[in-house]
From TrEMBL:
This is HMA domain-containing protein. InterPro entries: HMA_dom (IPR006121), HMA_dom_sf (IPR036163). Transmembrane segments: none annotated. It comes from the Bacteria. GO terms for molecular function: metal ion binding. Residues 1-64 form the HMA domain.
Amino acid sequence: MKFKTNINCSNCLAKLTPFLDKKVGKELWSVDIDNPDKILTVDSDDLTTDDIVKTVKRTGFEAEAI
């Protein structure tokens, strides 16, 4: 799954990491902060796009499935 986000920097990633590690699992997600759309990629068969969007929003960031 891929999402357009507003996760801009390593500090943003540090805030998000514990939440996504718990929800998705370590090493099963990544954010390309060099991409203009700040693409979050999630590798999960158990979660829906809504699950990921809700988790990201709980940390104060935005995510939109693409």
